[in-house]
TrEMBL record:
Residues 1-15 have a biased composition (Low complexity). PANTHER family: ENTEROBACTIN BIOSYNTHESIS PROTEIN YBDZ (PTHR38444). It holds the Pfam family MbtH. This is Stimulator of DhbF tyrosine adenylation activity (Modular protein). Gene3D superfamilies: Structural Genomics, Unknown Function 30-nov-00 1gh9 Mol_id. Residues 25-75 form the MbtH-like domain. GO terms for biological process: siderophore biosynthetic process. Residues 1-27 are annotated as: Disordered. GO terms for cellular component: cytosol. Residues 17-27 have a biased composition (Basic and acidic residues).
Amino acid sequence: MNPATAAPGTAGSANPRSEESTMAHPFDDPEAAYRVLVNGRQQHSLWPDGIAVPAGWTPVFGPDTRDACTGYVEAAWTDMRPAPIRTVR
């Protein structure tokens, strides 16, 4: 194929989309450090360390390994219902 007639971004290089699909997402990296966040409804979230904590969430554990943070969530968040629902009788 003549590079002059090739589609933009394809001449002599790998497909940029295939390179993007192999990049790790920061929420899926098992080797990264994580924090556990809690919101006002006592819901927990695993959050990559180094990424800004979103408004309404507070760090309660970490930074630590993904496994340690997951263990913390499993031990601390035993009732998945939001706090306001748990208190209704």
